[in-house]
TrEMBL record:
The lineage of its organism: Bacteria, Bacillati, Actinomycetota, Actinomycetes, Streptosporangiales. It comes from Microbispora bryophytorum subsp. camponoti. This is WD40 repeat domain-containing protein. Keywords: Repeat, WD repeat. Gene3D superfamilies: YVTN repeat-like/Quinoprotein amine dehydrogenase. It holds the Pfam family WD40.
């Protein structure tokens, strides 16, 4: 009989010496899971290659009792610094210290300043949101943006706030201007529009309108300042001092309700006009004197726009939707078309395509060349020469794109997080868990990553990655140097659902769970567990599942031997990695989420979500543990396990019932809840930092961390 104290000692050993190989990873469509666990009481690694693990093992009589100490409440989640924007929501252009700069705001709530010539970051990010505008107040460069829901001014040189927040309501657009020689700003949104003196912070006139405005501009007609606001079916000119409309508004018919996000003003034929890009009515040219509108003055479907001077004439620069454009799984365009048009004649001066779904655009002059800067859903800030359409600087890329998935590891004795976005992302990045900051450059891989894990080889922290859709291989990289170790491991044509690096009989082994394509392209026809000698690359074992896909992969240890466990929809299979043999197969409840592996009661347990119920299976016996986790009202999508205050716990997440729950696995009782940062969380795992348990969750273009309390 092994006592509960031995279970806790075994778990500490797993966390301390096996943390580099004890990692896990989840995918929505190809959900791999890897967790190397040491079974308490096991013998040292055997050297005889003939050793075969017997199964089922005798049931243990050890049942842990909870020492208590799990916190009753937990702190709010904290977003990690992913190294850049997560969607670029707004851009502006101006001068700073004699050079042209771009200002950008992202969905991760930072504002950044870039040198337009190089697109290199200038200084630290500013905590704030878009929309952004850029201008001069009392001789100093000032950024306008949003902070805690209010209009805020920042000194672009010092990055410090200028004065207090301005109560502009929930604004969606902001513009710089001038009134009686004083710098002013107009902000418009769901609470109408507001105009402020930027030097004093005082309001100019009463709030303007009560509608929901999505665009705002400041212009002059016969020397009189006007505020132009745009909403779905109208554009209105306002007197900023009285807050009253001036003249007849531009009213669209109800069947032509548009999303008006941009209003540009210029002079055509000596007359002041507003250019309003729309999706269905082309560019509307609105004469601000006669108030006559010309629909389809420029033909096309236009989005974010700006005005520039090219070769001595004013041109209209806009994102244009042309024909059928490929999109990713989130509906974002993979490429955007930029149109450059003379608004006076309708002549198309040029057009060119750029990567990504562009949502914001601004124009400035770099020397004697007009340059446009764009931001979009691919997290990148890009700059292009307007005359040639060529990229003028290497793009400033942000964090991973799409939904982020992650695994834990260790580098130079510190816990790290390796993460990547989904879609076509081929570059997993590395973040320090303690500081939350990215480390060096990401690893660039030759194809789409279907699964990855961290491990240790020769005293080095390594990344093992399964590659498909362009290069069917498994590759191993040194995480410190980002250099490959050995040649690619090949021998399959399909996708890898899970990878692992382990050791048996004094040999380093790479294990992969592979779904092979047949001649008709059906990847579900052949699933296998394959084992390679590392680093020679020799394929040692090709173990067929029998029918259907292989499913998820986990790596555990039984009596000191590495054992691979695969989980298909309703079945768990155990494979002796060293001997290259299938050990066992038993039924599990139909799962609805990736399976998690935990260690308690002196055995290794699979935690299986079956809808709203979470069941436990002893992998040493194949028997269900009669202590399910009951409490969720909707389907559980993600699970993590670890230890807090010496107690084995599980964390479960259900986006449908919008709850994250913490469970004491010794009693299967819920002991707390966690605050969810957003509706979507794609992966959960528990790591350990300075003696504390840290939950890491992958979300939409962000990684979240929760401090769960002391580990022991």
């Amino acid at each position: 009989m092994v006592h509960a104290a031995n279970c806790r000692r075994g778990m500490r050993f797993m966390l301390g010496s096996d943390s580099a190989t004890g990692v896990r990873m989840f995918f929505r469509r190809l959900p791999p899971i890897l967790a190397v666990l040491v079974l308490a009481g096991s013998v040292p690694l055997a050297s005889a290659g003939s050793t075969v693990v017997s199964w089922p093992r005798a049931a243990t009589t050890c049942q842990e009792t909870s020492p208590g100490g799990v916190p009753a409440s937990f702190a709010a989640p904290v977003a990690m610094d992913m190294g850049g924007h997560s969607d670029v929501t707004s851009v502006a252009v101006g001068e700073l210290d004699g050079r042209l700069v771009a200002i950008s705001a992202g969905a991760e709530h930072t504002i950044r300043i870039w040198d337009m010539a190089t697109l290199k970051l200038i200084g630290d990010p500013i905590p704030g949101d878009g929309p952004v505008a850029y201008g001069t107040v009392d001789g100093r460069p000032v950024i306008l943006g949003r902070s805690h829901g209010a209009l805020q001014r920042w000194d672009a040189t010092t990055r410090l706030p200028v004065g207090g927040p301005l109560p502009a309501g929930r604004f969606r657009a902001v513009a710089f201007g001038e009134l009686d020689g004083r710098p002013i700003a107009a902000a418009a949104g769901t609470d109408g529009a507001h105009v402020f003196d930027l030097a004093t912070g005082r309001r100019i006139g009463p709030p303007i309108g009560t509608g929901i405005f999505s665009a705002v501009a400041l212009t002059r007609v016969h020397g009189v300042l006007l505020v132009l606001t745009g909403e779905g079916d109208a554009v209105v000119a306002w007197d900023p001092v009285s807050g009253k409309p001036v003249g007849k508004p531009l009213t669209l018919q109800s069947e032509f309700i548009q999303e008006i996000n941009t209003i540009g003003t210029t002079t055509i034929g000596g007359r002041p006009v507003a250019l309003i890009p729309t999706a269905d009515l082309g560019v509307i040219r609105w004469d601000l004197v006669t108030r006559e509108a010309t629909y389809h003055s420029l033909e096309g479907r236009f989005g974010p726009s700006s005005l520039a001077v090219l070769n001595g004439r004013t041109v209209f620069v806009s994102v244009e939707t042309v024909g059928s454009i490929a999109t990713d799984s989130f509906g974002s365009r993979l490429r955007s078309s930029i149109a450059v048009i003379d608004p006076a004649t309708g002549e198309r001066v040029s057009s060119f395509e750029i990567p990504g779904h562009v949502t914001s655009l601004a124009v400035g002059d770099l020397g004697d060349r007009p340059v446009i800067v764009t931001g979009g859903r691919d997290n990148a800030v890009r700059a292009y020469d307007l005359a040639t359409g060529r990229e003028s600087a290497f793009p400033a890329t942000g964090g991973p794109n799409g939904d982020i998935y992650e695994v834990n590891g260790e580098l130079r004795g510190r816990p790290i997080v390796v993460a990547q976005g989904n879609g076509d992302d081929r570059s997993p990045g590395v973040w320090d868990l303690g500081s939350g900051r990215p480390l060096n450059a990401p690893v660039r891989l030759p194809g789409r990553i279907t699964s990855f894990a961290t491990g240790e080889y020769g005293g080095r922290a390594v990344l093992v990655a399964g590659i498909a859709f362009g290069d069917s291989s498994i590759r191993v990289f040194d995480l410190a140097s980002r250099m490959p170790i050995s040649e690619p491991l090949v021998g399959y044509d399909g996708s890898v659902n899970g990878v692992a690096l382990t050791e048996a009989d004094r040999r380093a082994l790479v294990v992969g769970a592979v779904d092979e394509d047949d001649a008709a392209g059906d990847s579900s026809s052949r699933g296998a567990v394959r084992i390679w000698d590392f680093p020679s690359g020799v394929l040692l074992h090709d173990l067929a599942v029998g029918n259907g896909p292989v499913g998820q992969l986990a790596l555990i240890r039984l009596v000191g031997r590495p054992v691979a466990v695969t989980f298909s929809a309703t079945r768990a299979r155990l494979w002796d990695v060293g001997a290259g043999k299938r050990m066992a197969s038993f039924r599990i409840a139909k799962r609805s989420a990736p399976v998690e592996i935990a260690l308690f009661d002196c055995t290794t347990v699979a935690i299986v979500a079956t809808g709203r119920t979470v069941k436990l299976y002893d992998l040493a016996t194949g028997k269900q543990v009669e202590r399910p986790l009951l409490g969720h009202s909707q389907q559980v999508n993600s699970i993590a396990s670890g230890r807090v205050a010496g107690v084995p716990i599980a964390v479960t997440d259900s986006p449908q019932d919008r709850s994250m729950r913490v469970w004491d696995l010794t009693t299967s009782q819920q002991v707390g809840t966690l605050q969810r940062p957003s509706r979507y969380l794609g992966s959960l795992s528990i790591s350990y930092l300075d003696g504390r348990a840290v939950l890491v969750g992958g979300g939409r273009e962000v990684l979240w961390t929760w401090d769960l309390g002391p580990a022991a």
